Structure formats: structure tokens, C-alpha cells
Automatic annotation (TrEMBL):
This is Glutamine amidotransferase domain-containing protein. It comes from Escallonia herrerae. One of its GO terms (biological process) is glucosinolate metabolic process. Residues 56-200 form the Glutamine amidotransferase domain. Belongs to the peptidase C26 family. SUPFAM superfamilies: Class I glutamine amidotransferase-like. The keyword Ribonucleoprotein does not apply. The keyword Hydrolase applies. Transmembrane segments: none annotated. One of its GO terms (molecular function) is peptidase activity. The lineage of its organism: Eukaryota, Viridiplantae, Streptophyta, Embryophyta, Tracheophyta. GO terms for cellular component: cytosol. PROSITE patterns: GATASE_TYPE_1. Keywords: Cytoplasm, Hydrolase.
Amino acid sequence: MRIEGEKRYALLLAARDSDYVKKVYGGYFNVFVAAFGEGGERWDLFRVVDGEFPSMNELHNYDGFVVSGSPYDAYGDDSWILELCFLLQTLDAMQKKVLGICFGHQVLCRAFGGKVGKAYSGWDIGLRKVKIVKDFSSCSFLDGLDEFPPALSIIECHQDEVWEVPVGAEVIAFSDKTGVEMFAIGDNILGIQGHPEYTKDILNNLIDRLLTNDAIEKGIAEDARLKLQVAEPDRKCWGRICRAFLKGKWNQ
């Protein structure tokens, strides 16, 4: 039951917790709540990767939803991914706020008719400068960005990307590596290709696991680690952007 006046959000977790994240942070849920949550809110966890979804009669209780990253392909036909696409379409019809991160960004694109596939230029791992196109956007939650620098650094870890945004979507950020770093549909759908919630240690551990599994070449890992040594992600700025989108207001 919802408490009157209480803001309620749900994390749709599309990845299983790594041993490292469980040990250090208690799970990805805590990482997301630390990045996007505020006092006086309730956050719930649904492990959609394992088929755990909110019931349809619960959806109206939530003010917003966050879709996490995932090692799965957003263009795959796993049953839980298809169910997730249907849920996202339902949430949009209800005008619920939905924030998609990495895989979440891509699956939002797919759910609304865009195109997603392997990145033409291969893996992007490490820090990336992202240019936000705020001057020409009609998205009201971007109105508070004037105080931010024109480009923000974000942690990236993906080998898929948005090829073509859905009809009616706006591309509101890009980089020299990826043409669609962020897109929005109206004021209730936002996708971010990078990981505003990630800390450098989470990415370093992920790089170790990708190397161990022969998912990336050693040179890619070394380049990513070098980037992490010489610069910092703008986590505070990205956190404010995400919170402003989900809550409809700008806070520190």
C-alpha cells in the first residue's frame, strides 16, 4: 500500500549481481538507490532478468522506473526481454517516468520502434566525454543544465548501441564514439547509454571479469584503465540530471 505523499520508484534489474558488487555494495540495487534516491522515498526491486515483474495493478503506485544495464542484448528475443518491452509500452501509455541505463537505454529504443545493434566501432569501455544538446531540446527537465559544462564525462561499458531512435524521440547527447548517448521521448522517457551510477571500482572489476571471460582484448582493457587513472566521471552532475528527470525538479 502506498503511503500518502511518499514518492515510490522501482528498479527493473536486468543483470545479476556480481560477487564484487554484492560484497562491497550489497548489490546493484543499493548502487542505484545511492545514485538516484533521496530521503523520504521508497524504492523497490524487481529482478526482471529472472522473470520478476511488477503486477499490472501495482504500476499506478509508482512515480518512476529505472531499467538497469545488462550483459544481454536488448535486441534479443529472450522471453523476459519481450515482456520488458511490453511493460515499457504500458508505462509510457500511463505517462510514467522511465529512465533506461545502457541496456535500459537500448531496450527503451527497441520497445518504441527504434533500431538497436552491435556498435559499428566496437566496444566502448572507460570514460567518455558526452556533449549534451540542450539548446534545441524541448525536454523541460533539461532547463536546469545551464550551470553545467557543455560536455560531461561518464563511465561507459557497452558493445551495442542505438542505431536509430524511435519516431518522435530526440537525440539530446552524443560523443565522438556513439551517435546516440542520450535520447528522450517527451518528458517521461529518457535513455542514457553510459553508466551514471557506476563508480570507478565497479568498472575496474567489470573489466577484470570481461578479460577473464575473453570478452575483450587486453589492449581495450589497458586503454580503459588508463582513462580511469587520469580523469574522473562527472557523477554528481549525472546524478542531478537523473534525479531531475525522475522527480521533475532540480536539487543539489
